[in-house]
Design brief:
Length: about 230
């Protein structure tokens, strides 16, 4: 496997299929109501405490996505590859970009010095969006930015678990279940065979089609069974 570029240079990866000049003052980002054909969204996470994994993801308008992952501990490992994002997820991702007010947000939040506590767990993140010939990058250093929470959740929902955990590409595709099972109390949804489903009280349980309907209703994918991985592999 080819060596992965150091995450310190991740900003150069972000504009890989557009221009690098925009990182230093290119055309203003214009987020039209309809998703443009040149839409690109990239996301970088580095120096998060748990899991000790750095990764870069780049998602294009046609649904093609690439990733590079570096596991820092306990043993260094590197992964790189591709995955596909469905149209419905892309539409939701672009909507989250627009609803965040991305174009009007500051270009930097937080400081480069990692603080102890929750901020250290978050790590440093970089959001990059290219659309309609314009682009913008936002650096978030060890803080939570409420305006970006939904966008970050949308991105996390379409990333296969092996990208963010460094656990390696699955040996084979997961079969698509008939439904996803949601817990209205915890706001997580699961594959029906997930062990955590046994803990959902009947009054708190609801089901959704095996697509992004649960995400659209504000539920989060279970980090144990990773229900959306089955969509990426089918």
């Amino acid at each position: 496997m080819r060596s992965i570029l150091a995450l310190a240079a991740a900003a150069l990866l972000l504009a890989g299929c557009s221009t690098l000049s925009g990182l230093f003052g290119g055309q203003r980002l214009d987020l039209t109501p309809s998703m443009p054909s040149d839409f690109l969204c990239s996301f970088v996470v580095r120096e998060a405490a748990q899991p000790p994994v750095d990764y870069t993801v780049k998602i294009q308008r046609n649904g093609q996505a690439t990733f590079e992952t570096v596991v820092r501990a306990p043993t260094r490992a590197e992964h790189a590859g591709e995955f596909q994002v469905g149209e419905e997820a892309l539409v939701g991702l672009y909507a989250a970009v627009r609803e965040s007010g991305f174009a009007a947000l500051a270009s930097r939040y937080g400081t480069a010095d990692a603080p102890p506590g929750p901020g250290r767990d978050l790590g440093a993140r970089v959001f990059y969006v290219y659309a309609n010939g314009g682009e913008k990058r936002i650096d978030v250093q060890y803080v939570s930015v409420p305006q970006l929470d939904e966008l970050e959740r949308r991105i996390a929902a379409v990333i296969p678990s092996y990208v963010s955990t460094g656990s390696g590409v699955p040996a084979g595709p997961q079969a698509l279940p008939a439904v996803f099972v949601a817990d209205r109390r915890t706001r997580y949804f699961h594959r029906p065979d997930c062990e955590l489903c046994k803990q959902i009280a009947p009054a708190d349980q609801s089901t959704y089609p095996p697509d992004y309907s649960a995400v659209n209703e504000g539920f989060h994918p279970c980090p144990t069974c990773r229900p959306l991985d089955s969509l990426s592999s089918n």
